């Protein structure tokens, strides 16, 4: 492993590359990254770094977002088959059909969408800013939120606003059962329960806070509490433990895992830097259209 790490570092320097990693990827991949964060922080970072090569350790829609925001950079996706089943639940043809049937509606897309869908919507959001983005839309406007019905429902409840919800979900978070959450809460009554807003509303209702992965990292760091139940994908436990060695972290059972995030390995990261074979390529016209809703979100965030 040490040899691979050394080779990645050499090629990183030789290529003037920056490595970005999502909080859910394997610990050893997080450790070699220049920046680890949530979807929003990674989008901001992708735009800011202006590196000739960005290696994006995450899933495809994230690397696409980085490419759209930094079209002059080469964006490498070490695991080119790392998709997001939730993003695939919003088919561009279906989105066009809905748009035609609801010409007055404002379309708000979670960043967990393909570039083709982003090109069809008015504004994007992430789990860190969905409420902020929705607050900018006049209360009398009809809103379609896609593709995550749970993030949509949880944000609608928070804002006391009615939203039309696309029937998509994250299989990893949707599987987290309220009974398991009640069980672990009873086991650790002093622990703060943090969950991701991609969880079912019945799970979010039990939590002390529903936060993006970046929000969880901040919460655990700043809280006076010593124990936390972590209701999201297990990769974040690595980052939380690293930053809070004295705090106790309790994962759910079974351990929530996103198989796509786990496809990124040190081996395919090295392969990406060696061969440059796994670059994200999108038509310029599509990127130009998809950039608008992302930029609108970034202005608000
Ligand atoms: P955040 O890191 O933005 O909270 O997103 C979670 C997620 O599911 C990414 O796929
Ligand atoms: Fe998609 Fe869920 Fe995996 Fe995030 S955790 S990439 S939303 S499947």
Strand count = 12
Helix content bin = 40-55%
- Ends apart, CA distance between termini: 38 Å
Query: What compounds sit in this structure?
Result: 1,3-dihydroxyacetonephosphate, iron/sulfur cluster
Structural write-up:
- With 301 residues, the chain is α/β, with parallel strands linked by helices.
- It has three domains: 2-82 and 261-281, NadA-like (Rossmann fold), CATH 3.40.50.10800; 86-169, 3-Layer(aba) Sandwich (Rossmann fold); 172-251, Rossmann fold (3-Layer(aba) Sandwich), CATH 3.40.50.10800.
- Helix content is 47%, strand content 15%.
- The chain is built from 16 helices and twelve strands.
- A four-stranded parallel sheet has the order 2-1-3-4, with helices on both faces.
- The relative contact order is 0.17.
- The model has no long low-confidence stretch (mean pLDDT 97).
- The protein binds 1,3-dihydroxyacetonephosphate (13P) and iron/sulfur cluster (SF4).
- Residues 23, 38-40, 84, 112, 126-128, 170, 198, 212-213 line the site of 1,3-dihydroxyacetonephosphate.
Précis, in short:
This protein has 301 residues and is of the alpha/beta class. The protein has 16 helices and twelve strands.
């Amino acid at each position: 492993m040490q040899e691979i790490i050394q080779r990645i570092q050499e090629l990183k320097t030789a290529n003037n590359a920056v490595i970005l990693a999502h909080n859910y990827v394997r610990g050893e991949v997080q450790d070699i990254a220049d920046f680890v964060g949530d979807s929003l922080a990674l989008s901001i970072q992708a735009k800011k770094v202006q590196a000739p090569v960005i290696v994006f350790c995450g899933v495809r829609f994230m690397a696409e977002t980085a490419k759209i925001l930094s079209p002059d950079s080469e964006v490498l996706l070490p695991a080119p088959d790392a998709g997001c089943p939730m993003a695939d639940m919003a088919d561009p043809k279906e989105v066009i059909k809905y748009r035609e049937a609801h010409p007055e509606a404002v379309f708000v897309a979670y960043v967990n969408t393909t570039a083709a869908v982003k090109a069809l919507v008015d504004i994007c959001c992430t789990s860190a800013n969905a409420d902020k983005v929705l607050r900018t839309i006049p209360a009398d406007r009809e809103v379609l939120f896609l593709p995550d019905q749970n993030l949509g429902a949880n944000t609608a409840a928070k804002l006391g606003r009615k939203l039309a919800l696309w029937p998509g979900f994250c299989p990893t978070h949707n599987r987290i059962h309220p009974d398991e959450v009640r069980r672990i809460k009873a086991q650790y009554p002093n622990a703060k329960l943090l969950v991701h807003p991609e969880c079912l509303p019945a799970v979010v209702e039990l939590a002390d806070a529903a936060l993006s992965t970046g929000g969880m990292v901040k919460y655990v760091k700043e809280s006076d509490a010593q124990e936390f139940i972590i209701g999201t994908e297990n990769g974040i436990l690595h980052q939380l433990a690293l930053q809070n060695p004295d705090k106790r972290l309790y994962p759910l059972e079974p351990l929530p895992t996103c198989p796509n995030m786990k496809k990124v390995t040190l081996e395919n990261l090295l392969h990406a830097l060696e061969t440059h074979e796994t670059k994200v390529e999108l038509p310029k016209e599509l990127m130009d259209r998809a950039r608008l809703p992302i930029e609108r979100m970034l202005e608000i965030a």
